[in-house]
Amino acid sequence: MLTEERYRIIIQRLQESEVVKLQELVTLLEASESTIRRDLVDLEERGLLKRIHGGASLPGHKLPEQGLEEKSSRNIHEKSKIASLAAMQVKDGEYIYIDAGTTTLAMIPLISARGVTVVTNGLSHIEALADQQIDSYLLGGKMKTRTRAVIGSIALQNMEHFRFDRCFLGTNGADVQMGYTTPDPEEALIKRRAHQLSSASYVLADASKFGEVSFAKVLEVQDAALITDRMPEAWRESFANKTKIIEGSQ
17-54 burial string, b = 16+ CB within 10 Å, else e? Predict the structure, then answer.
């Protein structure tokens, strides 16, 4: 089967069901898994679909928020690249905010700057910071059991005691028009306030987040530098026109 014919069938299947599994496409197209993966990469770069764990979805298709364990098992290599780039931004003696999330969690063991103080709303993050013997503060408030992120009015009140040199934020979606988004409005408030209290802000997003839009807006694209493992060509120019991109391939 010709490549363009496979593309047509993949898009048609997505239009019917919004989400399609990799193994389903392998069977449907009678092609190898590696061939289908290459097809999905190409179609994603054209902005025609979004690769997700185990398959693909239509751009902008809203998936339910996953728990920490589910997120931890996804895009491990990509998160490692992003975490390394993020950790490199931290300088000696700085006061920084690290948002809850698996990508931000991965940056903690990679911080080599000395005399750093960290504030976080991630329960798992405070444990990792203690392991690295980094001075740290955990915001108080309501804990989300699925993601172990501390949110709510008490956390916002706690945030007012601090000012940051830099903040590092996770996101569920990164879209040029809709900005950075997350499923939970309360969590979006925490992220936004951290940005407002920081001299410099960074959003950490792997390539699977581009074109995704979630429920609650966090920031405009131009409000924060973007750290990513790989910028899909379909999105590169539009993002580069609005913000600084720190990319794994650089």
Answer: eebbebeebbeebebeeeebeebbeebbbeebbbbbee
The answer to whether the CB of 175 falls within 8 A of the CB of 212 is yes
**CA 248/CA 250 separation, integer angstroms:** 6
Tokens describing residue 228: 């990513």
pLDDT tens, position by position, 150-186: 999 999 999 999 999 999 999 998 988 889 999 899 9
* Contact residues for 21 (Cβ-Cβ < 8 A; gap 6+): 54, 55
* HSE value, Cβ hemisphere, 13 Å, CA-based, for 75: 22
Q: Residue 212 corresponds to which amino acid?
A: E
Is the confidence at residue 52, as pLDDT, over 80?
A: no
Rounded distance between C-alpha atoms, residue 86 and residue 76, angstroms: 15
Query: In the block, which residue shows the tokens 């993601």?
Result: 147
- Identify the three-state secondary structure at position 150: strand
Residue type, 246: I
**Main-chain phi, psi angles of 167, to 5 degrees:** -130, 150
Residue 210, SS3? strand
Residue position matching structure tokens 């750290």? 227
- State how far the Cα of 85 lies from the Cα of 110, in Å rounded to an integer: 9
Pairing mode, strands 150-151 and 55-57: unpaired
